[in-house]
Amino acid sequence: MLIVTSTNPVACCPVCQAASRQVHCYYTRTITDLGWADFQVQLKLHVRRFVCSNAMCTRRTFAERLGEPITAYARRTKRCASRLQTIGLLLGGNAGALLAKRMGLPVSSDTLLRLIRALEVPERATPEVLGIDDFALRKGQKYGTILVDVENHCLVDLLPDREKATVIAWMKAHSGVKVVSRDRGVTYADAAREALPEAIQVADRFHLSQNLGETLERILRRQYPTIQELFGHSDPVTDPSLPLKRWEAEKQVSQGRRMAIYEHVLALDAQGCNQTEIAEQLRMSRKRVRQLLKGPPQPPIYKQRSTKLAPHKSYLKRRFVEEGCENLAVKRDYHGILTEESVRKEGAEHAGDKLELLSFSGSEPDHTGFH
Ligand SMILES: [Zn+2]
C-alpha cells in the first residue's frame, strides 16, 4: 500500500475551469495499480475537495483531478485497466480472471468483461467493395449479417439479424459503396437495389461454386441408375425405381464415403502398416483407426426434430394429396402460424404423391383454431 498526496496548490473547476486554492475538505480514494514483483500495489490517495472561486458557477465544490493516469471515479489506474483489457481480449472472462490473479491483479470475470465492453470500438471507413453474408448466431434458429471489406479482408460491421430493413438502414447510413458482393438470396439483393441503386451487385465466388456443386450433385443423383448402368455396376441394396429423397441420398453418399475409408484402412492393415502409420497416411486419429479395425462404420442415427408443422402434417397431407390445394390456399388456412416456406416445403414433399394439381376448391378447413 502506497500512501500518496497531491501537492499541486491549485486545482481547476471541471465545469467553469476557474482556478481555486481554497480547500474545502480531504478524503481518501483507494486505487489499484500494476503489481510490483510479487506484490499487489494499491495507492491510498489523499484527495482534496476545493471550493469553486467562481460565484456564478453551478458547482459549489469539486474534487481535484489527478491527471491522465487516474480518471475521475476510476478504481484502478489507466495502465492497470489497459493491462486487464488486454488479458480479457486474449483469454475472455474466466481464464482471464485466473491469469490476472496470478499476475497480482485480482479481478472477477464479470469485471473483466465489463472492462472489455467499456473499450471504444474504432469506427471503420465504409469500403468501396462490400461483402455481405449471413452467419449463424444459433444454427437453424437465429442469424445475423456480417459485412466485410473485400479489398482489405477485414470485418466492417455485424448486424443483429438478416432482415432487409436492417440492411437497408446500414447501407443508407454508410454511403460510398460501389460494389456489393453477396449471396444469391433475394434479401440482400433487394436491400442493395433499394439502398445503393448505383452500386454494382456481384454474386460471390463461394456461393456460385456452392450452388453449382449442389445442382450438379442433384442432377447426377437423379441420373444415378443410368450412370450405374453405363459403368456396369448394380446396387443390390437400393431399388432404382424408388425415388430417392434428398436426405436419403445424402445419407447414402456419406455412408459410401465412410465405407471407402474403412476399406482403405483394411487394405493398409493387410499390407502390414501399423496403426500409427495408417493414421498418418489417412490423416485421422489413431483412435479412429482402432475403431475401424474392429468393424465397419455404422451410419449415424439422426433424431427427428419436432417442428411446429408436425401436429398439422396429416391435415396438410390431406389438403395437398386428396383435395389438391395449391400452396397459397393451404397457407391461407394457417395464416400467421406457419411460414410460407414451411408450407411450400410440405407441398413439395407431397407433390410426387399427387396425380395432378387441382386448383383450390374454396372449401373451408374442417379443423378449428386456425383462423
Ligand atoms: Zn466552477
Overall description:
- A hairpin with a 6-residue loop joins strand 2 and strand 3.
- Helix content is 40%, strand content 19%.
- It folds into five domains: 74 residues, no CATH class; 37 residues; 79 residues, Nucleotidyltransferase, domain 5 (2-Layer Sandwich); 49 residues; 66 residues, no CATH class.
- The strands form three sheets. It has a five-stranded mixed β-sheet with strand order 9-8-7-10-11. Strands 1, 4, 5 and 6 form a four-stranded mixed β-sheet that branches.
- The radius of gyration is 34 Å and the shape is elongated.
- Helix 4 packs parallel to helix 5 and helix 11 crosses helix 13.
- It has 13 helices and eleven strands.
- The C terminus is likely disordered.
- With 371 residues, the protein is α/β, with parallel strands linked by helices.
- The structure holds zinc ion (ZN).
- The site of zinc ion has 8 residues, from loops.
Which keywords apply here?
four-stranded mixed beta sheet, Nucleotidyltransferase, domain 5, alpha/beta, binds zinc ion, 5 domains, single chain, five-stranded mixed beta sheet, 371 residues, disordered C terminus
